[in-house]
Amino acid sequence: MKTYLPNVDEVQRNWFIVDAENKILGRLAVEIANTLRGRQKATYTPHIDTGDFVIVINAEKVALTGNKNTAKTYQDYSGFMGGLRVRTADVIRERTPTRLIRDAVKGMMPRNRLSRQQLRKLKVYAGDVHPHEAQKPTVMTLQQS
């Protein structure tokens, strides 16, 4: 009996949509990362991109537990001396609300070329309007609340 390995051309990709309103950021990021990698499929192979597309709407309304709104920091470095900027999650949510979800999902992915390719299938939008209606996305059911 031979081991089945999916071919890149025969992988069927679905489109899922997730409403991030009042969802806990970490738990949501785990589910999204597993869907991007294709871990829920029977044909999952770690070295082949078998994942699906994920659309996240209402990214500005995602919930952070505890005092993470003021305690969690995000760092940006310009490359110059003194160019380190440290901002809290409150400030990031005001400026670029999609970054909270994008960084959380990126942190749950492996650090390699394949994960960078899989992260391109993540579409995050601050409001509830998205330009992917033609793909007919289905609502993704989350395992945890």
Top keywords for this entry?
145 residues, alpha/beta, Ribosomal Protein L13p, Chain: A, four-stranded parallel sheet, two-stranded antiparallel sheet, 5 helices, 28% helix
General description of the model:
The strands form 2 sheets. Strands 5-2-1-6 form a 4-stranded parallel sheet, covered by helices on one side. Strands 3-4 form a two-stranded antiparallel ribbon. The model has no long low-confidence stretch (mean pLDDT 95). With 145 residues, it is an alpha/beta fold. The protein has helices spanning 25-37, 68-71, 89-95, 98-107, 113-119; strands at 15-19, 53-57, 73-77, 84-88, 122-124, 138-139. It is 28% helix and 17% strand.
- Strand tally is 6
- CATH top level is Alpha Beta
Portion in strands? 15-25%
Topology pattern, helix = H, strand = E: EHEHEEHHHEE
Tally of contiguous helical segments: 5
CATH superfamily: Ribosomal protein L13
Question: Shape from CA axes?
Answer: globular
Mean pLDDT comes to: 95
Question: The CATH topology, please?
Answer: Ribosomal Protein L13p, Chain: A
Backbone CA Rg: 17 Å
Low-pLDDT windows of residues: none
- SS-based class: alpha/beta
Please give the largest β-sheet. 4 strands, parallel
Just name the CATH architecture: Alpha-Beta Complex
